Design the sequence.
């Protein structure tokens, strides 16, 4: 047991939960239109809470215990064996921290992944349907991907794919699932014919700032120790996000003649997404390149690619998280090379092999997350219905679904 490692990982766990609530809730709430703001925040809160409970019920066991290449076993159901009241024996350790703390830390990753998906289907999905979809996709989508990438006997992990803090597991999978869900539930009423602008950019910036701060725990905590790798991950997180802000603002200035707050915020998130799989595995100079390239790719994702797809991904979860995550995951393979300052093997052959492994992990994550999301959407829609009634959508889901308003007269 190392108390400094324990304290850092506990702090990181709290920081990642800060990303969920209030961070993501405020971020999405600000992006929503006024009459839907509370419904979006409620869905984020509810989904994060549900994923946390499911993680402790069976998620941790099926992800991080030994099983086969795609899923773990049943030995830790309900966190069995991690804590028994009155037991004088110490908790099993994962390196220098208790396994229970590792399970708690990973619970926040499951929560934020499922919470992200709500942004794609926002402003027209019923609260109960959002919970049902998230719970089902957590089981069919998130758990197998997390096991394949992170578990000791996971298929992609054994092949050598790198994902330090969740580029494939969290961002690519959430973006792909969100896009499928948005396609299934259909566009918002008036989409493409009327402006659907964020109702509060200050609220959006506040949420983004909390996400940025929480991301230090997201990436830095993934070292699972208070060590040099954690410091590297925190440094890279700061640099990539800052570079993402500037890259998006510069691109908007060149393309549109002016830089926007919404664009700068989006650039920060894209930079954070891009550096996530590489945070503890690349040199700080690489973080600047990854932040900029992920930001520019995400800008294309929310503009050109979104128009081509014709899908109403309300808060651009696919454009920012999936596209930015793809760029970050592949560039992890590039900058992992010792020739570019990383800890990996030197040589062009080793670089190309790692890039292929990263590409393979990206393709598997996209395919699995999308297919599982399609199954979940089909099941939930047939059983209880995903979409809110048109009159409820026009009235606003705040009042129709929850009997509340964000801004009472």
Sequence:
């Amino acid at each position: 047991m190392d108390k400094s490692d324990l304290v850092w990982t506990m702090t990181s766990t709290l920081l990642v939960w800060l990303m969920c609530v209030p961070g993501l809730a405020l971020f999405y709430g600000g992006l929503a239109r006024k009459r839907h703001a509370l419904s979006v925040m409620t869905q984020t809160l509810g989904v994060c809470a549900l994923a946390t409970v499911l993680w402790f019920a069976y998620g941790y066991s099926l992800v991080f215990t030994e099983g086969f290449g795609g899923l773990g076993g049943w030995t830790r159901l309900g966190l069995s064996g991690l804590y028994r009241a009155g037991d004088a024996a110490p908790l099993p350790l994962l390196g220098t921290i208790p396994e229970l703390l590792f399970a708690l830390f990973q619970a926040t990753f499951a929560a934020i992944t499922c919470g992200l998906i709500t942004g794609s289907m926002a402003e027209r999905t019923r609260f109960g349907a959002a919970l049902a979809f998230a719970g089902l996709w957590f089981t069919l989508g998130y758990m197998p991907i997390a096991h394949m990438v992170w578990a000791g006997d996971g298929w992609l992990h054994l092949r050598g794919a790198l994902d330090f803090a969740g580029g494939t597991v969290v961002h690519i999978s959430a973006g792909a699932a969100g896009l499928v869900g948005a396609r299934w539930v259909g566009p918002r009423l008036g989409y493409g014919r009327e402006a659907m602008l964020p109702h509060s950019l200050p609220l959006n910036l506040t949420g983004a700032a909390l996400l940025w701060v929480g991301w230090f725990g997201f990436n830095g905590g993934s070292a699972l120790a208070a060590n040099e790798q954690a410091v590297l991950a925190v440094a890279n997180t700061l640099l990539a996000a800052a570079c993402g802000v500037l890259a998006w603002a510069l691109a908007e200035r060149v393309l549109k003649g002016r830089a926007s707050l919404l664009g700068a915020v989006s650039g920060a998130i894209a930079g954070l997404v891009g550096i996530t799989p590489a945070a503890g595995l690349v040199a700080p100079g690489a973080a600047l390149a990854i932040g900029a390239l992920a930001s520019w790719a995400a800008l294309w994702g929310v503009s050109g690619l979104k128009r081509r797809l014709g899908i109403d991904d309300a808060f651009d979860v696919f454009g920012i998280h999936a596209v930015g995550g793809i760029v970050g995951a592949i560039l992890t393979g590039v900058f992992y090379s010792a020739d570019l300052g990383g800890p990996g093997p030197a040589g062009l052959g080793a670089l190309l092999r790692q890039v292929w492994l990263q590409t393979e992990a990206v393709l598997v994550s996209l395919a699995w997350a999308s297919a599982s999301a399609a199954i979940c959407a089909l099941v939930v829609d047939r059983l209880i219905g995903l979409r809110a009634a048109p009159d409820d959508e026009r009235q606003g889901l705040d009042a129709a679904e929850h009997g509340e308003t964000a801004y009472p007269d």
